[in-house]
Amino acid sequence: HMAEKGGYKHFMLKEIFEQPRAVRDTLAGRLREEEGDVYLEDLHLSDEQLQGIDRVTIIACGTSWHAALVGKFLIEEHCRVPVEVDIASEFRYRNPVIDEKSLVMLISQSGETADTLAAMREAKRRGAKCVAICNVVDSSIAREADGVVYTHAGPEIGVASTKAFVTQLIALYLFTIRLGRSRGMMTVDAGRALIAAVVRVPALMEEALKLNEQVEKLARNYLQARDFLYLGRGMNYPIALEGALKLKEISYIHAEGYPAGEMKHGPIALIDEHMPVVVLVPQGANYEKVFSNMEEVIARGGRVIAVCSQGDSEVASKAEVALEIPTDGEEVAPIILSIPMQLLAYHVAVLKGTDVDQPRNLAKSVTVE
Ligand code: G6P
């Protein structure tokens, strides 16, 4: 079985290391650098249609829902359209405010998740235009949607999503550029700048993957933990949720992701010397705020695993562990931060001896309700 795993011990690790390639494939042929725009071959929505919408609702489950939360941040920031994010099993049993002027986006790696498919049918019934971000060509959701932005991650075998997630994020950056440009909310220069940022992603990921050995070594210090807390702010907050989900899924350690500024309203009560707290504190917007949240954790004895920018000696001197990621990418930080989140969950799970690629009770794709 080592051969089909490309020499890696698990599909999950193979897929983590495939991510730079998966991102390159998802970008291939789509960038129009000159115009500061992108070409999405299966989007099937004209500029006029994109101009006609007055809201975006993004619907998904699981890891794909975390991608959706990053999408809200990107679209609101760059396109100035209100974006709502919903979990598919909630959306389909609500009475959502959706009409012909709504753009509904479904994010699903498999394109077969029953709740997401049902949510799309409900949105269509109410007249919304539906766009899907899918990894599986001709899957049910991709076929029924008005348009698709395919991720080109390739088949994902590990139940815990890795390369599908980061390519969903890439698809969201691309869609944001298209929506912003078509609606005149994004200048050519702003479009070019965002394209330049996503083009740098594969190289930044290669750099971040070098953390593998460090994470493998430190993982053994956390096997006894009963709970983990993950903190982030802004568009890195969904990555805290995703980091916690990865750990839960494959290591069976309870973990919770929280917006760092909300910690004082509850989870701070849990912090003691037994509690590892992963703090996402890269340079950029919110840095000072998250830094002070980290200090609050340390003051209560929490064991901080900080993920910070390379060379941040201030964070490194305070945290129990500092995982340093490349500094060159505030715009794409959620993507780069995902790598240490995946590696930490992976190595803790391997050391605990769980079935990393097939965690108990979980399915790769949930096609029944
Ligand atoms: C299952 C998988 C998750 C995935 C979720 C949504 O729970 O175990 O990894 O994020 O379904 O799947 P989808 O294919 O719709 O993205």
TrEMBL record:
Biological processes per GO annotation: carbohydrate metabolic process; fructose 6-phosphate metabolic process; protein N-linked glycosylation; UDP-N-acetylglucosamine metabolic process
Catalytically driven reaction(s): D-fructose 6-phosphate + L-glutamine = D-glucosamine 6-phosphate + L-glutamate
Active site per the UniProt annotation: 364 (for fru-6p isomerization activity)
Chief subcellular location: cytoplasm
Record bears the keyword Chaperone: no
Record's keyword annotation contains Transport: no
Domain SIS residues, every copy: 45-185, 218-359
EC number, UniProt record: 2.6.1.16
Subcellular location as annotated: Cytoplasm
One MF term in the entry's GO annotations: carbohydrate derivative binding
One GO cellular component term: cytosol
Keywords noted in UniProt: Aminotransferase, Cytoplasm, Glutamine amidotransferase, Repeat, Transferase
Signal peptide feature range: none
Subunit architecture: Homodimer.
Function: Catalyzes the first step in hexosamine metabolism, converting fructose-6P into glucosamine-6P using glutamine as a nitrogen source.
Protein name as annotated: Glutamine--fructose-6-phosphate aminotransferase [isomerizing]
Native source organism of the sequence: Geomonas limicola
Record lineage: Bacteria, Pseudomonadati, Thermodesulfobacteriota, Desulfuromonadia, Geobacterales
Gene name for this UniProt entry: glmS
